[in-house]
Hints:
Layout: H1 12-19, H2 24-30, H3 32-45, H4 49-64, H5 70-86, H6 91-114, H7 120-130
Helix pairs in contact: 1-4, 3-4, 4-6, 5-6, 6-7
Amino acid sequence: GQHKIKFIPEMVGPILEMTLIPETELRKATIPIFFDMMQCEFHFTRSFQMFENEIITKLDHEVEGGRGDEQYKVLFDKILLEHCRKHKYLAKSGETFVKLVVRLMERLLDYRTIMHDENKENRMSCTVNVL
């Protein structure tokens, strides 16, 4: 109800951790919570910047810590885009946000993979991409 806004941004991290558990059905059931958070913040502030900043910060930390995978990236993209495209006011800004996060995830997953590469040039290139 009207108190949902009080949980943003504090609950973004814990919910992100839950969505990153490598269980497809759990992911499908919990990723839509992010859209609810976006919609809730947008309702009160006409933006979802607190949510956006928090999810990007937490995602960086979680992927660096070894969580997240290609399947998560695909589900995140598919599920959130479906929800955003159906919403009158969040269609454009929501799609832009989802694409930004998906690109960030791609780079973070690449970075995590390449960190164990012996080739310093590959690691540097990947680091530049993340930045």
